[in-house]
Amino acid sequence: MSRRILFLLMLALTCSFMLVGCGGSDGSDGANGADADTAAIIAELKAQLESGAITIAQYEDAIAALEAELASTGKITAVESCATCHADGKTNDPAHGGDYLVKGHQGANDSAPVVREVRNFKTAWSANITDVVVNGDNSLTVSLTITSTGAAFNPAADFVSFTINRYQDDNTLANYDRWVNIAPATAANFSNRVATNISGNNYTVTVAADANLTPYLAETLMIGATSSDADGANAASDIYRGNLKDGFNVQRLLVAGVDYDVNSSNNPRNYVSDKGSAPSCIKCHGDNEFNYHHNNVLRADADDCVTCHIGGASYDGTNQPAYVSNSRSSLVGRVHGVHASAMYESGKDTDGNALKGYPDEDGFNIGFPSNMSECSVCHTTADQLANATDNSKFRLSLCVTCHGSTPWETIPMNDTLKSIHSSYTVAANDNVCVTCHTGAAGAIAPTSLEDIHAGNLHNMEVSLGKNIAYEIQSVTITGNTGKVTWRAYNTNTSTNYDVLKRTTAANDAVFVGTSPSSADAARAFQSYATSMVIGFYTGDDLTNQGITSQGGQPTLNVAVGSGNTSEVGTTDVFETTFTIPATVTATKGIVAIQGVPVVWSGGTGYLAIVDSVTKNFNRDNSAATARRSAVDINLCLNCHTDFLGHGHNRINNIELCVTCHNANATDKSPRTTLAAQGYNVTADGKTEESYDLKVMLHNIHSATDTDTAYMVYRTRGIYSFRGESAQPANFGVGGTASMWQDVQVHYPRAITSCTACHPAGTFNVADQTKAVAVTVEQGANLASHADDTVIGPNAAACTSCHKGNISDAAAIRAHATTFGYKTNKSTKNEILQLAQ
User: What is the pLDDT of residues 427-483, one digit of tens each?
Assistant: First the structure.
């Protein structure tokens, strides 16, 4: 420690002794001590300044001397300087980035890097068909509202064209539940029609009477109107650059001459839609990126797709548009086939060839991020779900859209049932299913189309879980003993469960211990008993410092049971106690309840997927502040529906995720264990990898674009997340083959769409007075982060995406190095104090 700093500290101590006196004799001189902790020195200097013991000039001199001393010892003297240019509200100065962190990622300027063919594409025009009238001469008058945030719609040049389809269903394989395109007798009757401005943003367009349309005017028709900016400056290539593109594609339903919204119950094929509060597709794919076929007209709604994808559910793709060859052109066939392609052979067409994209991509092999049997993932409204699962739709031609041309190999059934079904073919037996599968009691096969999907094990577990919830009422600390007051209750009746009771009563739940009849349980039950995870903070991030030898892992996992849990009175509210290790010095912690209770039905125990809950606490029992919000679990659930971590029991809770996936967490310890078992533990060229949540999720979700594998070693599996890239050369070398898990990622959005996961306003530069430095290399002592090699939280986030094939990867990584830090000399506490 410098003499100047030491003098100032001694001065303060001298002043204190002068005030309080000294009651005893001087002791002997002690040995020379180590340098005081940097954070403690700064805190002491601040206290002296505030008390008036030293002047501002003396404080500044002492800080300067401390910085010089830190530099001489290899400690950092400045944190990341990202906020200088990139903080929220900074001018978008091209020379210095400005708020490019926000604007650049959202595609609001041309500097956004192109990392994917389909980029942030948002139409500047917003249109809606408000009315369709059949005139006496059999022409149609179509009323539209057209508004623009860019170039105005110009009726003199921006013509409107129409695609008109009629509904057909005669219960035959060729003509079953589909839209059939009406080709006009004269092309000009439907195409390049001139709009007439009525007032403001209101227009009308006339579809001329046409001999091919007139016979069907009393039937059910879908009227589709499209336009694109013919006279504006937008080029076709703008869809790749994130610029606004002017155009629209909208529909209106016409039933026996009366018009309806396409989401109306009058629409016989109202299966999916992105209009309204329950979107089907854009909740996962994004509402500004869903543009396909590169035709300069926005395809941003599921309703738009049926303009061309008009075939029925039939596997043979009858009435395919001419530009599609040997693939399912119907929307249901194509969407089911693509989403199920990694699980079944449904990624193939009727000839067994790969189901192609446009124009000539490889066949699809998509890992669907949710559960394919959970129909409500895409069929989001009650009407849509009822239409999609109506038993009249129970046809073999529908089954094969997911399960492939040999569905009996992929649909769970015993050998007897497989033998009965195996002779059925789409061509000969398409509508035979409802002969047995009536959905009525006493039928040969009482299960209906809805029963088969809603009644599968996963969906039963989800449904049961909606009836149960956990609640942490309070956490109190006395010394090193903690007490959690909590309950589990029925969400329908608010009645509390006796969590210590052993029962097999119908509809009752078991939360603790081993199953009284585990052989009857739907799954191996013992692993899912209710427990509590206790974690601790450094700054505003969980690090679990001092709690474990596993590098950030909260091994303080309390299994709820009679030995540590007791009822409060007779209320079925319980108290569970835990002990904080003496090595933990953190003043703030978190309690998380995890686990899946078993609910009994018909003598069988079924797991109930119940959301995990968390509660922060301060060790002095003062009110604990919430951790900063950066991710919304509801955004995660847009794609994943149910986020079941680590087997089944850590469910839908971000704070529980970061309790383990924290800034201290790397896989060094598992790699060490697996190396002793003969596994190649450097297949990715690293000796360890961070699985801090932001590092892990950015790496995984960007794998499609970076074309770089992200590997994490765990003792129950070695995972490689990649896009189309080849596996690392030594992937799969050593140990048991089943341990090596190849996870191919197909992220459905542009990775620059930060709002896919982050609420608006939460993905600016990290506040380094709260966000903790991220460990990239554990030191020798895994129980301490004092000797870890760390980088800044912003560098950790940015370089998790900006790597591999990303065009600016090298520049961004160099930028992060230049304006950030990488050190094993400064501790995380010291860096926080330096930022503060």
Answer: 788 888 888 888 787 777 878 888 888 767 777 888 888 999 999 999 999 999 999
Shortest CA distance to 147 belongs to which of 34, 53, 246?
246
Interval 591-602: pLDDT, tens = 999 988 888 777
What CA–CA distance (Å, rounded) separates 171 from 430?
Answer: 10
Reply yes or no: is the peptide bond before residue 268 cis, omega within 30 of 0: no
C-alpha 682/C-alpha 687 separation (Å) is 6
Residue type, 42: I
Q: What is the pLDDT of residues 701-732, one digit of tens each?
A: 999 888 889 999 999 999 999 987 788 989 99
**What is the per-residue DSSP string for 475-534?**
EEEETTEEEEEEEEEETTT-PBP-TT-----TT-EE-SSS-TTGGGSSS-GGGG--EEEE
User: At 419, is the secondary structure helix, strand, or coil?
Assistant: helix
Q: In this predicted structure, which of 85-94, 98-107, 238-247, 586-595 has the lowest mean pLDDT?
A: 238-247
- Token digits for 659? 């309790």
End-to-end CA separation in angstroms for the chain? 21
Tokens representing 394 are 């129970």
Top-confidence residue, 768 or 105: 768
Q: Identify the CA nearest to 364 among candidates 348, 352, 388, 376.
A: 348
Beginning with the edge strand found earlier in the chain, give each strand of the sheet holding 740-744 in spatial order: 710-714, 717-722, 740-744
Which residue type does 211 have?
Answer: A
DSSP 8-state code for residue 437: B
Q: Tell the burial category of 33 from Cβ atoms under 10 Å away from its Cβ (0-12, 13-18, 19+).
A: exposed
* DSSP-assigned letters across all residues of 371-411: -TT-GGGTS-SHHHHHHHH-GGG--HHHHHHHH-S-GGGTS
**pTM (two decimals):** 0.82
Higher pLDDT, 202 or 726: 202
Vertex 243 angle, CA 241 and 244, to 5°? 150
Tokens of 362: 């490889």
